[in-house]
Specification:
With 274 residues, the protein is α/β, with parallel strands linked by helices. Helices cover 44% and strands 13% of the residues. Helix 1 crosses helix 11 (230-241), helix 3 packs parallel to helix 7 and helix 4 (136-143) packs across helix 7 (166-179). The protein is globular, with a radius of gyration of 18 Å.
Length: 274
């Protein structure tokens, strides 16, 4: 359908595009005509982008500096924001929460007021966050906090629910996506997320280390029978950011090759973890 996946003339911000899903997304955006791609990451991507801003998504000063550069006088407004940056639980829980949840929230809320109506925000969450209903009260408590330091203090004071940080951070992203849907609508925007199962990216060994090979392999085999590629997930991001999803808002799109469906229908056995 020509024209429905057309990012020509759009100013697009992508976080975490050095490798993996973000790098695949940049390639797809280029194929869809994007000519104004701004990347926020610690490392400059190999792919050709129009602007790279070295940014630590776990540091509020770094995020604010990036926003100031994006919104500099004379710069066009942002049309699409893809919050893709994320880290695994091989890092301290505090770092995981800063990058995966607090940083994503800060960047979104500082860019959203100046974004062009008709645009979109798409977050990369995870199936690891699917159990958010069990922690909704705590998640809302954290998301209600405006200050960065206060949010970090909340994380430190709720170590039991935060655990290693990864699953809880992705629960926060799913809930945040839903919470912000009404706000986005009021500005003529949409906000959604994708929730991938294991993906063949440079982070996969870290997930195998923290979640075990047994769990990762079970999720892969119980789903499509193969590990997801970065392109699989990037296509879902592209869809949610495009006009093909013009009436989709506040949705956490599960992109797991059928793993969740099979699990809920009792069609797969739980792994034997000994």
């Amino acid at each position: 359908m020509p024209g429905l996946v057309d990012f020509a003339g759009k100013r697009i911000v992508v976080t975490g595009a050095y490798s993996g899903i973000g790098a695949a997304l940049v390639e797809l955006l280029r194929e869809a005509g994007a000519d104004q791609i701004v990347v926020l990451d610690l490392k400059e991507p190999a792919a050709s982008v129009d602007e790279f801003i070295e940014t630590d998504m776990g540091n509020p000063m770094s995020i604010d500096a990036a926003v100031a550069q994006i919104n500099a006088d004379g710069a066009p407004a942002v049309d699409n924001l893809f919050n893709n940056a994320g880290v695994a639980a091989t890092l301290p829980a505090d770092t995981v929460m800063r990058v995966n949840a607090l940083g994503l929230k800060r960047l979104t809320e500082r860019l959203l007021p100046t974004m062009n109506a008709g645009g979109s925000i798409v977050n990369t969450a995870s199936v690891a966050g699917n159990r958010w209903p069990e922690h909704l009260e705590q998640i809302n408590g954290l998301l209600d906090i405006d200050g960065w330091d206060e949010g970090v203090s909340w994380v430190a004071g709720n170590a039991e629910v935060v655990a290693d940080g990864y699953a809880f951070s992705k629960e926060c992203v799913q809930v945040y996506t839903m919470r912000m849907a009404k706000t986005a609508t009021q500005q003529g925007l949409r906000i959604n997320s994708i929730c991938p199962s294991p993906v063949d990216t440079p982070l996969l060994p870290a997930f195998r280390e923290t979640m075990t090979d047994e769990i990762i392999d079970w999720a892969i085999e119980a789903g499509a029978g193969r590990v997801a590629t970065p392109q699989d997930q990037a296509r879902a991001l592209l869809f949610l950011g495009s006009e093909l999803a013009s009436y989709v808002n506040g949705i956490n799109l599960i992109v797991d090759g059928g793993f969740g469906a099979a699990l809920q229908m009792g069609q797969v056995a739980l792994p034997n973890l000994g």
